[in-house]
Amino acid sequence: MNTQTLKPMKDGLQASYDKEAFQYDERRYHSTEGRLFSELETAVLESWLPLSSGIRVLDMPAGTGRLSLTLAERGAKVVGVDISTNMLKVAAGKQGAGRPAFAQGSGVQLPFADNVFDGVISFKFFHLIPNERKQAFIREMARVLKPGRTMVVEFNSPYYGGFLAWLRYNFRKKHAGGMRMKCLFPDQIPELFDGLQVTRLQGIKLPFSSAFAAVMGRRAAHALNTWVGSLPVMRYFTYAIMIEARKPALGAR
Fold it and tell me: Which option is the CATH number for 2-246: 3.50.50.60, 3.30.70.3280, 3.40.50.150, 1.10.10.60?
């Protein structure tokens, strides 16, 4: 794997993830619940993206390369972008059948020409971005996406755990009342994806999914999660919402 380093950007997010990079995967994806969540979102992503050999995909932010490597192993030509030097170091050090390219850069100033990617993905990111900045990232992702192709973006869901979610965001978080900034509400979708066609939504991971898997078996737990996550109301009670949005084809109105 190769890592192209652009001009570093010093901000709070970069410093935070540089510090956390070497423990990031262990803290989030080594538990039973974390592994199940990763399996569920990866399964949906692979079913949505046409991963034929040679398809070019942008992963922003790439983080430790979890999804970049998965897609590269399926035959995609993946470019992963992240602001964190250390996250990219971890990603570049992983071994896999595919070989993504990694570049340091900002999601609002991507170092690519217009209309060059067959797919763009962004996972575990938008809960970090204030509402007034979210659309700038989506517009920049759309800029580098080819006409007629899709992006897949993941957001935190507002009602995961029901009433417990409200308590968590209003009393346990560092900045109380941040639920509407951190999470995606249905009424925010049209403005965020203005100019794009939202084609699919899917909720990812019900509460206590690992317990379901222990009792029902992993395959049945996956099927239950996928079914509930596809229901228009119930999907907002899962942990995350995946959205597929298509860039209009050239000449389309």
Answer: 3.40.50.150
